[in-house]
Amino acid sequence: MIVTVTLNAALDVTYVVPELQPHASHRVTSVSQVGGGKGVNVASVLAQQGRPVMATGLLGGATGAVVRADLDARGLAHRFSPVAGETRRAVTVVSEAHGDATVFNEPGPSVTEQEWQGFLADLRALLGEVRPQVVVASGSLPPGTPTDAYAAVVRLAREAGALSVVDTSAGPLLAALPAAPDLVKPNRDELAEVTGEAGLLVGARRLLDLGAREVVVSAGPDGLLDVTAGGGVWRAHLDAPLTGNPTGAGDAAVAALAAGLAEGRTAREALADAVAWSAAAVLHPLAGHVRPDDVVGLRARVRVVPPGTTETATPHQEDRRAHPAP
Ligand SMILES: Nc1ncnc2c1ncn2[C@@H]1O[C@H](COP(=O)(O)OP(=O)(O)OP(=O)(O)O)[C@@H](O)[C@H]1O
Ligand SMILES: [Mg+2]
Questions:
Q1: Which range is least confidently modeled, 5-9, 228-232, 317-321?
Q2: Which of 154, 203, 229, 316 could potentially form a cystine with 179 if both were Cys, beta carbons 3.0 to 4.6 Å apart?
Q3: Beta pairing class for 224-228 and 214-218
Q4: Do 293 and 287 contact (CB within 8 A), yes or no?
Q5: Quick one: which ligand is closest to 226's CA?
Q6: What separation in Å is there between the alpha carbon of 187 and the centre of ligand 2?
Q7: CA-to-CA distance for 99 and 23, rounded, in angstroms?
Q8: Contact present, 163 and 133 (Cβ < 8 Å)
Q9: Per residue in 50-87, pLDDT tens?
Q10: Nearest CA to ligand 1 atom 22
């Protein structure tokens, strides 16, 4: 069992309009509403891949009720803790003429100290009850939660005998590291932002120094880089980049890594799966979705590059520019 934690869950609202124009009124062609937030996306991908999963976090107000109802309708197991504030909406406006999307992210509800403590108590009880192998904590924090919220989640996971995976950015990522999360998965920009380092390898090693036990960096079409203190640097990528919707691809990578850990493999051993699951997410138009057949087909196209191997192919050009010689 994998438990995913989404403290800043959202109702993902998508408007499709013929052509988005600032200062104008629009006729909306279609509206869709789905429960979202990064941990919910991870849970959704795990469920599609047949893995037992439970989503938790914070939900509040009428919007929180819509998210709950959507998770029920999708058959996704969940047990969120209540907050008085209103769960945020993330509104995406798709402009058919431009073929692109404009996103409005609300900040999320204000969480009181009492609600935060209530969540921690609920999480402790949930972990004691379902005994997960892995706890995944993903995404931004709503206002009012402490910056080291994920450190508290990592400690509760360890106390319950579970491994922890943290996928967040900026202050909340840095503040999680002293709790020694078993795995963190920054993307290239998030890593550069918290470490001030442009190079993936230098940045990943910085996160190890700060307490992470293992770092998997995602680099968009260039794939994944796995770094541990003693285990060298492993890379994995697809044979060729895909075009599609990369939003949520990182969540699918996290889902695959968590699935591997839950099955007793290391994150490094699950790296190729993570490339396949995340590539399948790029092929699916909706974030938090993969088609199992795509995962199987793409898995055969994954190239794994063990430590010390030099590649003649092009995928890691950008990183090599940052590190001309190892
Ligand atoms: N264009 C692409 N072609 C093939 N694979 C891709 C492509 N874009 C992303 N991926 C895969 O998805 C993984 C995660 O992508 P990325 O680094 O963009 O994550 P992210 O920024 O954390 O995404 P998000 O937070 O929206 O889920 C990559 O490491 C890679 O394996
Ligand atoms: Mg991400």
A1: 317-321
A2: 154
A3: antiparallel
A4: no
A5: 1
A6: 6
A7: 19
A8: yes
A9: 999 999 999 999 999 999 999 999 999 999 999 999 99
A10: 250
CA angle 303–256–273, rounded 5-degree value: 20
Residue 285 pLDDT exceeds 90: no
Q: Which residues contact 87 (CB under 8 A, 6 or more apart)?
A: 9, 10, 11, 58, 59, 60, 61, 63, 64, 67, 108, 109
pLDDT at 319 over 50: no
Catalytic-residue membership of 167: no
Ligand 1 pocket residues where CB is under 6 Å:
187, 218-221, 223-224, 238, 241-242, 246-251, 253, 275, 278-279, 282
Q: How far apart are CA 55 and CA 125, in angstroms?
A: 14
**How far apart (Å, rounded) are the C-alpha atoms in residues 111 and 118?**
11
Distance from residue 23's CA to the centre of ligand 2 (Å): 32
- Judge whether residue 321 has pLDDT over 90: no
Catalytic entry in 167, 222, 251, 319 = 251
Does the predicted model carry a pTM greater than 0.85?
yes
Using the atom order of ligand 1, give the atom closest to the CA of residue 242: 3
Cα dihedral sign for 276, 278, 283, 288? positive
Q: Which residues contact 269 (CB under 8 A, 6 or more apart)?
A: 260
